[in-house]
Amino acid sequence: MGNKNFIRLAPVSFQERVESHRADLNKSDLAIVDVLLSNPAEAALWRGEDVAARARVHPSAVTRTSKKLGYKGFLELRADLRDMHSDFLAGHVETLKPRAATMRDGSTLGNMVQSEIDNFILIPKNVKQRDIDAAADLIMEGERIYIYGRSDSALLSEMYYRRLGRFGLAVHDLTDLTAHENAEAVLTMTGKDVLIVFEFRKASRQLRHLLAHAEKVGARILLVTDNLQILSPIPDIVLASPRGARDGWLSMSVPLMIANSVIVTIGERYAERVKEYQDRLDRLKRVFET
């Protein structure tokens, strides 16, 4: 019989609390969390009643959700959101200003280079190696890998389709498919499969259908994004770091760096398995070349 007095240690960040307590969250809880993380800047200033109105739940539900996540109440949760907003979205702007002032030369190229440097500095803070390891294991444990991206993220989807294929994985690219083609592609998806999503800013209707289907069949979900917006259903793993100011130029180098880190980690953690497949492939290529 379980110990009713067992105390769960609270994770450090709000996002980690959500991940840790995800199994305890009901539909109303998820609606509240989705509202909070879909509006990280504004939510840090909202009252509990504001959150409830946007999530379309009773105001008391906001307090219950806060306590489920290990907070004393919504005021403590909101304080955590404020820390997240200043730390994650603002990106330690004040600490970067002195160095940025010495490097920016007023040119477009100089500003873009500095912006990339500022964004890169934040990646290790927002994405830990343990998260990269978990993403690598999730992919390699999947029976089939489905990859979705659109617009700019389609470049990442294509890269993953090719690289994961070279690791010997069964990969299906859902990018640029019509709604009917996507339905046909995921019809046989099962709980042994993995859906990898590259998505920024706002989820498309097509993606929401894919996520709902993945949840229905029990497939695992990996999301690579540029903010802390949480989708419904909640992905199993979220790798997120900002790509720049919302009103400025948004870099693709950040998600590319994160995505490549997962690929490199797979090569390191599964070196023997990857080498065995690539040796077989090399032998077959030589046969086809003769």
From TrEMBL:
Stored Gene3D superfamilies? Glucose-6-phosphate isomerase like protein, domain 1 (3.40.50.10490), Winged helix-like DNA-binding domain superfamily/Winged helix DNA-binding domain (1.10.10.10)
Biological process (GO) annotations?
carbohydrate derivative metabolic process
Query: Which part of the chain is the SIS domain?
Result: 135-276
Q: Which UniProt keywords apply?
A: DNA-binding, Transcription, Transcription regulation
Question: Which InterPro entries does this one have?
Answer: Homeodomain-like_sf (IPR009057), HTH_RpiR (IPR000281), RpiR-like (IPR047640), RpiR-like_SIS (IPR035472), SIS_dom (IPR001347), SIS_dom_sf (IPR046348), WH-like_DNA-bd_sf (IPR036388)
Tell me the domain of life.
Answer: Bacteria
One function term, GO molecular function aspect: carbohydrate derivative binding
PROSITE patterns documented for this protein: HTH_RPIR, SIS
Q: Which PANTHER family has this protein been placed in?
A: GLUCOKINASE
- Protein name stated in the entry: MurR/RpiR family transcriptional regulator
Species per Swiss-Prot/TrEMBL record: Corynebacterium phoceense
